[in-house]
DNA sequence: CTGAAAGCGCTTACAG
DNA sequence: CTGAAAGCGCTTACAG
């Protein structure tokens, strides 16, 4: 491996000069710069970003920890972060906590050891409060992604309250009064927000709360399945089902299929997040579509913004943390009623 | 930020000793190690991986460049690589070439500057030959993933020939003689291999090659669409359609739908790679399912193996490059005929 | 059993 | 306009 010293000696200049032509950081006579460039070419020199990072105490890299790399929505967010980060000339270090707080803590630790300039974090379901404090205490800029919280942190996610209420109204307009609302693990903020919005919608619309089945705060999928099956089999059957994530929708659809219930005649159906290429398949599912790629892009850009502020070091006052929520689009399709309309709403 | 020097002075020992207790690299008296540990705790010291990497000329990181982060199959592979790499105690640097050879070259350059210990590369469609040579010339261990080639390199991908032939036989068994085979951009090795296998199958089965429509070597999706529409509308219509990737399948299905053709009665349908949660939807699609996650895991493990060999530095002879092909599973479903069977085959 | 010191490959004041 | 030198935070022979 060739070093700057080798380039310098070949070009007959000092290593300061080589460094300066490489980084364009001070004027160098065209003639000498030419010699340096030639020497770089001849030795096929490549700058050592590790040594550079060490000297500058800046790695030009950001860490991203997602809670569930298997979920298509998170894959899209990773894609968005990668896209934005590359455009900004930064490198992305990727880790996956697999919804495990311990692995999350380890990943944070590993990335901080690697001295990433900043961190984007989609927190695991049982994520410990103190990981956020720890990162901030370190002075490393942090952006929370998708899994938001009430703390004073920069965060980027989606709007959940308004779309949920709109979705419920849509179903009530179709005459539905009895819902099963499958929220799953409400330690996940996104799911909790959707559940809360559902409860709020019930109140707003003067619907009988006791007639609703809300499956929430349940950790294991098979328990959720059981509760859903029971809700569908017992008493007066609910006429509308809302699933709060892609996985939940998939499991719910399977259960519905097993019972030979037709959508939307036997039961109306809507889901959050939804499936890829969903317009190709029957039944067409009404979906609250999350702009996942854009969430990733926005998270990366917000982080980059903080990094720039920090590097400039101008403002003595800490900037106030920002919470950004992007708006989902509700794709109305046949699974939630006979009227098929398709209006992106603005929240 | 606290450094080893600060820990050392607080503990009243040398920095060598601190380093050695941290890395367990030589015996330290229990009593002194206790003091060191206490000092580390008190200062909440965190090792600086950048400085460590620089000194050791080893970063304990690997770079991954995928050609199309939007494709679900690649998202799965990324997931697999991340999983394996984390288990091995390495960090993953992720980049996306977006099927653009220039961006691919830039990404390689950026990762080599960062001194990754090794590189996993799913090459872009028009990938230049010399990127592989360049990396190998550098002495950086390299594993090609999914997009394989004929060079002497370590590579991990999927078996394409045998499954393709088996799929075609299955369709011929159902009585099909006229195919449209949508291969797309055959600069992509995976697609080219599937196309070649189709041609081979035609010969093996003594089918009239001139009765087949092969859409291949076409760069733009709209041109592919046009050729497919023409094939479906003109002359005696093909009775079976095979799409070589998820995107191609999605576009083909749309065209089929637009013409109100029913699967499998009007035309039989099968696809490679396929859709997530595909068992939930009608029509159920016969799919040659790629073990994408496992491909990622295998690529990472092969790379780790090479890194270990290199670190040991034992063998004076270079180990011969390995090509691993994992076997897809063919999911036979109703879209390719009335007989629904579901047999994972072994190739 | 432990410490002093060289050195990894850069950047960046400091001099001239 | 350019160079000599300090130093970023570690690891690792080398001594004792």
From TrEMBL, chains A, B:
GO molecular function: DNA binding
Keywords: DNA-binding, Repressor, Transcription, Transcription regulation
InterPro entries: HTH_LacI, LacI/GalR-like_sensor, Lambda_DNA-bd_dom_sf, Peripla_BP_I
All copies of domain HTH lacI-type, residue ranges: 2-56
Pfam assignment, any one: Peripla_BP_3
Name of this chain's protein: LacI family DNA-binding transcriptional regulator
Organism (species): Arthrobacter parietis
């Amino acid at each position: 491996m060739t070093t700057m010293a080798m380039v310098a000696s070949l070009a007959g200049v000092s290593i300061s000069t080589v460094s300066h032509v490489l980084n364009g950081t001070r004027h160098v006579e065209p003639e000498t710069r030419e010699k340096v460039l030639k020497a770089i070419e001849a030795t096929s020199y490549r700058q050592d970003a590790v040594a550079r990072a060490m000297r500058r105490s800046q790695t030009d890299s950001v860490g991203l920890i997602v809670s569930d790399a298997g979920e298509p929505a998170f894959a899209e967010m990773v894609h968005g972060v990668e896209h934005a980060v590359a455009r900004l000339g930064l490198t992305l270090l990727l880790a996956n906590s697999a919804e495990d707080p311990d692995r999350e803590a380890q990943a944070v630790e590993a990335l901080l050891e690697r001295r990433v300039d900043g961190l984007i974090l989609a927190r695991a379901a049982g994520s410990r409060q103190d990981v956020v404090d720890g990162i901030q205490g370190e002075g490393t800029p942090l952006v929370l992604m998708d899994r938001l919280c009430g703390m004073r942190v920069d965060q980027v996610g989606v709007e959940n309250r308004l779309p949920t209420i709109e979705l419920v109204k849509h179903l009530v307009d179709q005459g539905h009064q009895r819902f099963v609302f499958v929220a799953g693990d409400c330690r996940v903020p996104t799911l909790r927000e959707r559940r809360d919005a559902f409860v709020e919608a019930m109140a707003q619309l003067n619907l009988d709360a006791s007639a609703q089945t809300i499956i929430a705060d349940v950790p294991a999928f098979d328990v959720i399945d059981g509760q859903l099956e029971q809700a569908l089999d017992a008493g007066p059957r609910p006429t509308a089902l809302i699933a709060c994530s892609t996985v939940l929708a998939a499991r719910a659809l399977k259960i519905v299929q097993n019972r030979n219930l037709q959508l939307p005649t036997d039961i109306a159906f809507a889901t959050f997040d939804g499936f890829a290429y969903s317009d190709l398949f029957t039944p067409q599912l009404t979906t609250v579509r999350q702009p996942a790629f854009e969430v990733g892009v926005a998270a990366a850009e917000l982080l980059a913004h903080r990094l720039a502020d920090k590097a400039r070091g101008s403002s003595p006052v800490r900037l106030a943390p920002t919470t950004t929520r992007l708006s989902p689009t509700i794709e109305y399709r046949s699974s939630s009623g006979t009227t098929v309309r398709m209006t992106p709403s603005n929240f």
